[in-house]
């Protein structure tokens, strides 16, 4: 039977989420990849055990994670039941609804019909009684934000979620829905946008908007899906995400396109005495709105590398300028 490491809280950093009462670990684990039915369950179990042993108390899911869609929630649910049940109150588990999940007009976006049914399905697949955070996964251009916000608020009122988040909303959309949540007194606390050295869009408005509203960001793909690591420095490994046919968002072309910059960034990381992954995560955590970097991992050793980012979070002005120049 799994027994969590007694020293699990000794070295992780926990950051407050905006002005809320909740703290989350500086590194959180996402189950978008590597937790589907095509992945080995024992590897999934090993990653979750090691993560928790390292103080990573937050696991992030969504209805559509797999493949196939739904299988990451189902596999997580199985491991949770077998190994983590007694640790429920030490965990922050999130899920989301927004992307395509089932056929017909009610299987995606932001209607009340979809959000409530999807959350019920996610609770059933994971076997949980409630989610700590439930997200609107993407803004719906056709449904009024008020409807989406009221549906999320109802999840809280009915005990199915403790806190609410939004993901992939622009600064403007965050302002708009933030006002509605405020009127409703919904515990909306967090935004989940993509952010990494190669995709800095949140610096143009969203960071300020979140700080102004007293919210935090938990940023996804902080390693640009593996590009900002040593994974592709010497070619494209057979078992890497860029090679996997079930992972269409990181292409081999993208690896080739970015390689020259990645090598230069790797030199900067070496001078800091860090791996590129460690430096990339530390760099993300410098943004004042970022409470946590939401990493993925295909093996335990990656988690062990990534938490070492916490050993050197500071950058000199010169290092930041060198990084900016490489990224230009
Ligand atoms: N809200 C949204 O719309 C949205 C979208 C995307 C993701 N997310 C969330 O964010 C989470 C993380 O996204 P992501 O998986 O793209 O994050 P990421 O951390 O940028 O990429 C993870 C991948 O990078 C590689 N990697 C990680 N650490 C490494 C290390 N130390 N050395 C070498 N390679 C390393 C592994 O690739 P290999 O598999 O090649 O080993 C791993 O699978 C997801 O699981 C999900 O929870 C949310």
Write the layout of secondary structure elements.
Layout: E1 14-16, E2 23-25, E3 27-30, H1 41-53, E4 58-60, H2 71-84, E5 92-97, H3 112-126, E6 131-136, H4 145-157, E7 161-167, H5 171-184, E8 188-192, H6 206-213, E9 216-220, H7 252-272, H8 276-285, E10 290-295, H9 300-307, H10 317-327
Parallel strand pairs: 3-4, 3-10, 4-5, 5-6, 6-7, 7-8, 8-9, 9-10
Antiparallel strand pairs: 1-2
Helix pairs in contact: 1-2, 3-4, 4-5, 5-6, 7-8, 7-10
Structure explained in plain terms:
By secondary structure, this protein is of the alpha/beta class. It has a single domain (about 15-325), classed as TIM Barrel (Alpha-Beta Barrel), CATH 3.20.20. It contains ten helices and ten strands. It has helices at about 40-55, 70-85, 110-125, 145-155, 170-185, 205-215, 250-270, 275-285, 300-305, 315-325, and strands spanning about 15, 25, 25-30, 60, 90-95, 130-135, 160-165, 190, 215-220, 290-295. The strands form two sheets. Strands 3-4-5-6-7-8-9-10 form an eight-stranded parallel β-barrel, surrounded by six helices. Strands 1-2 form a two-stranded antiparallel ribbon. α1 packs across α2 (about 70-85) and α5 (about 170-185) runs parallel beside α6. It is globular. NADP nicotinamide-adenine-dinucleotide phosphate binds near residues 224 and 226.
E-strand count: 10
Give the strand line-up of the largest sheet: 3-4-5-6-7-8-9-10
Average pLDDT for all residues:
97
First and last CA, distance: 50 Å
Question: Summed up, what is this model?
Answer:
The protein is of the alpha/beta class. It has one domain (14-327): TIM Barrel (Alpha-Beta Barrel), CATH 3.20.20.100. It is 39% helix and 15% strand.
């Amino acid at each position: 039977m799994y027994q969590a490491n007694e020293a699990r809280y000794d070295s992780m950093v926990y950051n407050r989420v905006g002005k809320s009462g909740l703290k989350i670990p500086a590194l959180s684990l996402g189950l978008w990849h590597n937790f589907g039915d095509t992945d080995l369950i024992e590897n999934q179990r090993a990653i979750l055990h090691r993560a928790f042993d390292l103080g990573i108390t937050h696991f992030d899911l969504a209805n559509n994670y797999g493949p196939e869609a739904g299988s990451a929630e189902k596999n997580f649910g199985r491991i949770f039941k077998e190994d983590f049940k007694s640790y429920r109150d030490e965990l922050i588990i999130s899920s989301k609804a927004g992307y395509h999940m089932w056929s017909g007009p009610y299987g995606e976006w932001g209607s009340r019909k979809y959000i409530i049914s999807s959350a019920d399905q996610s609770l059933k697949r994971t076997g949980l009684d409630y989610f700590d955070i439930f997200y609107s996964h993407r803004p719906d251009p056709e449904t009024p934000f008020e409807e989406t916000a009221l549906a999320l608020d109802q999840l809280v009122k009915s005990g199915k979620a403790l806190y609410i988040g939004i993901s992939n909303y622009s600064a403007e959309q965050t302002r708009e829905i933030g006002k509605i949540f405020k009127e409703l007194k919904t515990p909306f606390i967090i935004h989940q946008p993509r952010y990494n050295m190669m995709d800095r869009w949140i610096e143009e408005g969203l960071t300020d908007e979140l700080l102004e509203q007293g919210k935090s960001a938990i940023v996804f793909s902080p390693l640009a899906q593996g590009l900002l690591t040593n994974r592709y420095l010497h070619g494209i490994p057979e078992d890497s995400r860029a090679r996997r046919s079930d992972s269409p968002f990181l292409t081999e072309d993208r690896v080739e396109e970015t390689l020259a910059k990645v090598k230069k960034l790797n030199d900067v990381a070496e001078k800091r005495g860090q791996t590129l992954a460690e430096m990339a995560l530390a760099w993300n955590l410098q943004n004042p709105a970022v409470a946590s970097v939401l990493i993925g991992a295909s093996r335990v050793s990656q988690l062990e590398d990534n938490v070492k980012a916490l050993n050197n979070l500071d950058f000199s002005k010169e290092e930041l300028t060198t990084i900016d120049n490489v990224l230009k």
